[in-house]
Amino acid sequence: MAPRGCAGHPPLLPPSPQAWVCPGKMLAMGALAGFWVLCLLTYGYLSWSQGLEEEEEGALLAQAGERVEPSTTSTSQPHLIFILADDQGFRDVGYHGSEIKTPTLDKLAAEGVKLENYYVQPICTPSRSQFITGKWLTEQQRIKSLKSIK
C-alpha cells in the first residue's frame, strides 16, 4: 500500500510502517528550506550594508578633517532581541530575585525594555505558534474536534 499523496513512487526504506517517506515531499521540503536560508542570508546582507554605509561616511569625514556631527534623526532600525524560553518560571532569572545567576539577562533587562505583562500557554507549542503567526490559537483553527477526524 503506497502512502497517501505519493502515487507512483515507492517508499524509501522506512524504519517502521508508520514512517513513509515520499521523494516528492522531501524535494519540496528541501526547496523550502533552501529558500528560507537564502531569504535569511539576503536579509542579513542588506541589513549589514545599511550600517556600513553610515560608518564609511563618518570615517571619510573624519579623514577629511571635518567634524562629524551625530545625527539627531537615526535612519537605522532598532536592535531587537526576542528570547523565547521553554518552561521558564517568573523567578527563574536574576532580575526577578532568583538565586540563579543570569548576569547577561540582568544587564539586558537593566539597559533595555522589560515586558512584564504577558500571558503564555501551559505548553510551548501554542505560544510559539502565536508568536510566529501573530494570531491567537483560536484564530489559527488548528485544533479540530474528534468528530471531524475520521
UniProtKB/TrEMBL annotation:
Residues 78-135 form the Sulfatase N-terminal domain. GO terms for molecular function: metal ion binding; sulfuric ester hydrolase activity. Its cofactor is Ca(2+). It comes from the Eukaryota. Keywords: Calcium, Glycoprotein, Hydrolase, Membrane, Metal-binding, Transmembrane, Transmembrane helix. The chain crosses the membrane at residues 26-46. InterPro entries: Alkaline_phosphatase_core_sf (IPR017850), ARSB (IPR047115), Sulfatase_CS (IPR024607), Sulfatase_N (IPR000917). SUPFAM superfamilies: Alkaline phosphatase-like. Belongs to the sulfatase family. This is Arylsulfatase family member J. It comes from Aotus nancymaae (Ma's night monkey). The gene is ARSJ.
